[in-house]
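ARCHIVE CARD
SHELF: 3
SLOT: left
DATA:
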Amino acid sequence: MDVMEVDATVIARELPRDVIHNLYRHCGKWNMIRISHVCRLWRQTLHEYTGFWTDIDLHLGDRSLDLKAAYWLERSGQRPLTIDIWGGNLDIEEAPFLKEHSIVRLGIVLRGCMDRWQSFKIEVYSRRAIDILLPILAGYTPMLRYLRIEAIETDALVSVDAERPLIPLLAPIGQQGGAKLSVSIDSYIPRLTTIGPSITKLTVDGNHDTPWTSNDVLRMLQSCPNLINCDLYLPGSGEMGTPSESLESVSLLRLEELSIYFVPDIENILDALLLPALESLALGQVDWTTTAMSALWCVFVASRSLSSFTLTDESPGYDILTAPAPFHPFHADTLTLRALKDLEITGNAFIRPLLEHINFSDAETLHLTSTTFGVVYRLISSSAHLCDLSLSDVADIPTASTHSPVTLSALCTLRIQNCPKLLDYIHAPYLKSLHLLCPSRSTANSEAPLCALIERSTPALTALYLQTIDITNEEILGCLERLSHLEILSLNACAISDTVLRALAVPPSPGGGTEWLLPHLKVVQFHQNVNITPQGVIELFASRNTSAKFRIRGDVIFVEKPSGQDARALSHYSSSLSVAHSHSV
């Protein structure tokens, strides 16, 4: 220990208690413990600091839980509390009845401080432990802002007919609409009738052993009239069935964001909801029957503030030869969603009939997969404000240019996957980023639409990403000559060779007659291009990185492993170049 360390230790030991207290107030729990090792005074001061005792961590497998909780509570003063209960599987514990009595004693201790709860979490391996503890915790929780209940159990199936346990926490009198409580529930199906008015954010994760019904979902939502944000993720529930008559209309007048996943018969939920303030809706893993599309149509009609709609399908199991269900809209043939800014529909083609009847004049982001050219052309033609467009696996694209290109003057980012021919129908003069990907389709003639777009629109691209594109050296160089603002160039599994890299490596002529090809280039990515060799990459980096102004960074994956000599040469640029080969990734 040097002199400075000795002096620092002496000074630390001589600090007054109020200074040490103030230091602890600015530390997290584990940092408090670490710095308390300075000396006995610091440890004593920590034990006297009530803020240290407010985070109470309780494992149901420990002995004397109630005594530990009481000990911490006594030292926490009147501060707000964060309580975390976890572990404990009553089905495999020795002497389970003793464990149950321990949980009861713990509940009695915690009930005495409910007015100070700020966060309460119970994450245990047995639903029975939750069922024992919750009924004891009946009372007001005026400071509660976060509640989490998770049953980590996969063997015991919850019957759809079983009575749902009540969470007996009470909202403060007169504050039902003002409190802001976030609730997270995982693999447990409770009732929230007493605390519901305080809940503004609700997250529910189901499991295959907790099959929710439409009555469960709607009853929970009905008990939370002040919800602003709601996420329901319910795998394993299957079809939820028709709800009871008493739940046919549930008003959520403040709800702004709603996401529902793994509810195949979504119509049994959507038909019952009144959502006038809804701004964002996300749905996934839905069986898009005629009734389901009709229910969604009604939401679109009633929720005039809807600005974002997302539909995803994690594992689309539909047969491409199966025709979607028919859909006939009510009242009008076409619905214009004027507030909609962002639309993403990926992975489920059965929603296509509904798409054929909607428009959105002010959309800024549009992501579509597995739809038809007719739908795409109509939607982009009516969306003059699009700035981000992503289209994948679009069918029925005309072989001849039967339609004029749609001018998208606001478009900055364009992603096209498995349908390069679509580029023939887009004019984007202010495009900044272009992704053209064909990972799962024949690449024949995929270069022609790219070259035509660049020639037609002359965009000042800053980023170009190509994957599995059938483009020659001459064609890509012709494109690059028109893209002098390009900063990022990514070529993945394309037919180009070292000829392109050597063209990029040619420096300006001494007399100033020529410039770099792509003078603003900063990043290159060359992945699995069979005709690109280590020698071409070395030549490119050797030339570009002689000048700090034109220095580039790169990421290269070769098809074959470079030789030892090439690997050593490439390592000279390791500060700006990452190298791998196909057999190592």
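SLOT: right
DATA:
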Amino acid sequence: MSIAVDNIHEQQQQLQMQQQHQQQQHQQQNCMLKEMVNDRWRIIERLGSGTFGDVYRAVDIKCETQSVAVKRETHSHGKERTLSREKGYLLKLRSVTGIPAVHFYTKLNTYTLLVMDLLGPDLEELKSYCGGRFCLRTACILGLQMIVRLRALHSQLCLHRDIKPDNFLMGVGKTSNTLYIIDFGLAITYRMPNGQHNPMLKERSLVGTPRYCSLNAHNKLSLSRRDDLISLAYILIYFIKGHLPWQGLKYKEMGLSLDEAVRQVKTDYTSGPKAAELRKDLCHQMVQFLDYTLNLRYMDEPDYGHLCRLLGDIMRTNQWSYDMTQLDWYNI
């Protein structure tokens, strides 16, 4: 009886601690509102949150029509600080089209702030706005810009390692037709100082997002350029079909973790007994796109031009123009 009472007491303490932690987070988020950053930007509203912390919209007090995004990362013991890494890659890639500019960075006692360009909606939001999928033409045009972004990153020896629709955003104003890539918190350099490719090693845990990451990530292998492109292939199928077969799995009923359940189903659909089902209703160029990325070896230099030609061939075959104003979200 005393054991049961002790368990209840322990659960109550844990719940109380969780509530206190949530309350502290809420207070911290509210404290940021109307706060000034570097005596230049006034924080107006909280836009969302990620694994690193929270994102806010701020306005330039000298020109209140100009907004920026402010990322805030709270320092926690034992937690890797990702904003420092992100700032480093954004500065390294600042000359690349489709990379948001860094305006300010500071590391304080309890948190770090990164001020950067405020962009438009991400591709996940736009897909939902368009009824849950994109037409093939829109998918191809977006895919071409995504290939160009990844080729530019890889040419600077940068691996993104978390390619997903949420990390591709459209610009605003004059750059509203430019696709940006964001969130470099998991990025790494894939060559060593001596110029040699990083060796393939075992990771401690999965790197990336289970829905879009490669089987190499599920198998906890070091990632390379091929893995960014495999994720891109999955994204294009997701855009065209509206879903991927390994979404919404009842993994607990399967007696598996989410990672293991997705890995199992993904294996069946990419190279196992259900491979034909994943490729069903895809044009042959899109099937070739997927298969090309899946067949790349760890240290291979991808042929980005080949991937662009596959999508360009779809456009030519259907006599589609590259007019960005005809993308799905402009015609609703």
